[in-house]
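Loading example: each entry is read as three labelled lines plus one structure line.
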Amino acid sequence: MSKCGRKKYIKTNLRQMTMETIESQQDGSVTDSVAESESAHMQTQTGQNSIPTLAQVSVAGSGTGRGSPAVTLVQLPSGQTVHVQGVIQTPQPSVIQSPQIQTVQVATIAETDESAESEGVIDSHKRREILSRRPSYRKILNELSSDVPGVPKIEEEKSEEEGTPPNIATMAVPTSIYQTSTGQYTATGDMPTYQIRAPTTALPQGVVMAASPGSLHSPQQLAEEATRKRELRLMKNREAAKECRRRKKEYVKCLESRVAVLEVQNKKLIEELETLKDICSPKTD
DNA sequence: ATACGAGTCCGTCATCCCCA
DNA sequence: TGGGGATGACGGACTCGTAT
């Protein structure tokens, strides 16, 4: 797998691994979390052992610097020891309220990874066939939140903005986009400038021409109409993608917050259990 | 200084899925 | 059932930290 392809693979599995983290994090053991993810991933990647096995675990304490790799040996339940390369994902400074919790993304390198990587890149269509679409993260979160009270649902835009939890930092989303005389779209705020490939027919956001199909005569007009529709669709999709990513970030923050809460709960329960054990156990001396 | 790896962001395409 | 919004997946550009 190419460098970029592997990177995408890691990104692709982030959500899945996050869910596994939540399921397994009550144990509190890094090794077990990795092992569970390992086995789960092996099931989903049958026949594709050239793809690195991935896991995401939550660890307490500080990690290394941003983007700095760390190599760890992890023992699986089967007794097999794997090399784990971990990279600290530094959260936004104002995002995580519990500084002890950091998300670590780990990738175990399967033995056949090197050889498979040298075989070349699968074309994108084949990859699309291999990588089946997973359920929407919004759906997952909503299912989660229906099970567990206290987990906010990702709802429609309005309620989401109004009901943002106080510990989650909202991101600035620029909305003012206009067309310059050169066909260049510029956004106010922090969005970078970008260019439309065929600016001749591009329209500002929200502008819909009232050209009905019956009013089009020449093939040129039809082509222009098609181009215009395409530009409009691309523009809408561009904005939708931005919004989608913003919501996804919020979703990830929500999961991270939930992990932090559950870890605290788990710790308290363990302490409580120890206390009760001390009370109930007969004194030996 | 520079090469390199890893992470992030963005635009686009393909597909899912809801609603009129 | 078609249209359109939502989102997974992909690839490219860019940034940043580290090693040399």
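The CA atoms of residues 54 and 107 of chain A lie 5 Å apart.
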